[in-house]
From TrEMBL:
UniProt protein name: MarR family transcriptional regulator
Membrane-spanning segments: 79-98
Organism: Deinococcus xinjiangensis
Record keywords: Membrane, Transmembrane, Transmembrane helix
Amino acid sequence: MNVARLLLSLIAGLSAALIAFSAAFVRGDVGGVMHYLHERAALRRLTESGAGAEQIAKAKADLLALGQAVAAPELATQLLPLELLLGVLVGLGVWWIFGERVARAASGARPDIQERMVLRFAHRRGGVFTLRDLMERSPLSAEQAREVTTRMLERGQLRREGEGYRL
């Protein structure tokens, strides 16, 4: 579980840092980026149509000027520590949220969830299962499995059948 938590946190943090870098690179001017992409497509169409070399050279020069007007690599590199800090904060936030969910699920704070897990497990096994099966093939720990089956026996949701249980 910690591997998944670590990978998810790393991916979220690095993605946030990359998005922040991209936003700083264009000074947040999404319209300028879209204009650049539109002009680049127009240059591609002009080239494919067989236009003259002068027209293509002028269009390339205009596209280069537009690209330099939209991009701000100096600003993006100056803000790199802030962008990385944002990535670290997002990664830590994801780590914390993921940990809270795992801790809440593992703490047994919601016995109804554990009971639903046992019911689903039992239905998949044809209504009959053993405590050993439940401990090995479900996310419940041995202690949780014993507690939830005891609760369900007391309420009449399960019955004992030899070494196993039946719905």
